[in-house]
Amino acid sequence: AAESCGQRVLFVEPAQYLAAIESLYRDGFTMCVDLTAVDYLAHAGRSVPVGVVAERFEVVVNLLSVARRERVRVRVQVADNASLASIFDVHPSSEAMEREVFDMFGISFDGHPDLTRILMPEDWDGHPLRKDYAQGRIPVQFKGAAS
Hints:
Layout: E1 2-4, E2 7-12, H1 17-26, E3 31-39, E4 57-65, E5 70-78, E6 83-85, H2 95-105, E7 108-110
Parallel strand pairs: 2-5, 6-7
Antiparallel strand pairs: 1-2, 3-4, 4-5
């Protein structure tokens, strides 16, 4: 385990991700505060602990133990086009968070009860927070704006 800003940081393998979350839950980390992702497409050579293989994506989960007044951050490397186990059965509060990561980054969560888009329309093409997402230039007309 590493530490960042006084917070314990655990790097886990994708195959051990769900088991690690379940173990932390049994250890008192019963609140999932946040679940998000990062696309490191342009930072392939970033620093990770020895033994951790850096992948394009990283899913980051912040858990809280209210009783211990302690937080832990779980970081898992996810390859492009790979999926990760859903933690919904352990932390139902992760339902919308996993959907957002799916919608914005295209990372699938196996076992999620409703892995559908949450922010973008269902027929939207692509995932807007991916670094390789083509951003278009659509002019926006503002009412009353000076030309």
